[in-house]
Specification:
Largest sheet: 6 strands, mixed
CATH topology: Hypothetical Protein Aq_1857, Chain: A
Number of domains: 1
Structural class: alpha+beta
Distance between the termini: 33 Å
Helix content: 10-25%
Strand order of the largest sheet: 4-5-2-3-9-8
Radius of gyration: 14 Å
Mean pLDDT: 84
Strand content: 35-45%
Number of helices: 2
Number of strands: 9
CATH superfamily: HesB-like domain
Amino acid sequence: MATIAQPDIALTPSAAARVATIAERQHKPAILRLAVDGGGCSGFQYSFALADAPTADDVVAETDGVRLVVDPVSLDLVRGASVDYVESLGGAAFRVTNPNAESGCGCGSSFSI
C-alpha cells in the first residue's frame, strides 16, 4: 500500500471563499500570501496579504481556484498547516492550525516553536 504524504500547506474551502470575495472587491487576483515574521506575543506571528502573483520559489496550494502562497523560509515553520476562515462572536479572521507550534497566544495570530 502506498503512503500518501501530507500536503505542505492547505487552504480550506471557507478561507478560499473569503479570499475570493476580498480579491474581487479589490480587483486583485485571488492569491493569499501567508508569511511568518518574528514578533508577536509568542515569538512568531502570521501575516496575510493579497499577492499579485507567486514568486518562483513559493509553495502554492490551490482550493476552488484560490491560491495560497508561502515562501520557503515561512514554510519551514508552517509545514503541514491549514489556513481556515472563521467567524465567531469575537470577530472573523483567518486562522492557522499549525502542527509545528508548541504554544500560541489567545488571539491565534502568534506562536512559538
